[in-house]
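testing teh design pipeline on a random one, pls ignore if ur not involved
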């Protein structure tokens, strides 16, 4: 087992946000489950990561009850769940040690948000020497408002920018269909 699938922040917290109705990938759970099935068939490690901001009073505060995997995700009981408090999945968890101990050198990243926690985890992983595949259509994001009052950056632009930023520098970009060898049903 020298590969792992990292499922980043596919958690109920996001469904509570007002912009969730504008999400780029409404079937994020289905897309992630396709990758999970592939990983298990190849005897790859599957690691689930949740984002948490304890004491914040937001939907990312565990006390609110939303820091849990989204309903419908197919997690096996023996697959680890890590809780992070940083944007990337490495800094505030033992992920690096877990991967190193198991001899993992290749990662596939999927989850929420494309440009934030998924991209940041990918960049850190590449810096740590992992070969990373970024499952672009198994990530999801919502429009980003312009804090200076301009128009929001749309989801297609966000995903395209992430593709450009990561491809060939930090990761190989693939779709779920390319990874699984099967088209979306």
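output:
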């Amino acid at each position: 087992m020298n590969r792992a699938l990292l499922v980043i922040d596919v958690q109920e917290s996001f469904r509570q946000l007002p912009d969730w109705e504008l999400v780029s990938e409404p079937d994020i759970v289905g897309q992630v489950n396709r990758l999970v099935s592939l990983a298990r068939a190849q005897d790859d490690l599957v690691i689930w990561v949740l984002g948490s901001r304890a004491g914040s009073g937001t939907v990312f505060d565990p006390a609110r009850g939303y820091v849990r995997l989204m309903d419908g995700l197919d997690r096996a009981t023996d697959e680890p769940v890590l809780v992070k408090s940083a944007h990337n999945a490495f800094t505030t968890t033992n992920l690096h040690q877990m991967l190193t101990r198991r001899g993992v050198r290749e990662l596939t990243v999927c989850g929420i948000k494309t440009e934030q926690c998924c991209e940041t985890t990918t960049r850190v992983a590449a810096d740590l020497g992992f070969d990373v595949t970024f499952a672009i259509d198994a990530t999801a994001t919502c429009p980003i408002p312009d804090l200076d009052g301009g128009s929001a950056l749309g989801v297609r632009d966000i995903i395209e920018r992430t593709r450009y930023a990561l491809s060939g520098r930090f990761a190989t970009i693939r779709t779920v269909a390319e990874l699984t060898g099967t088209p979306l049903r």
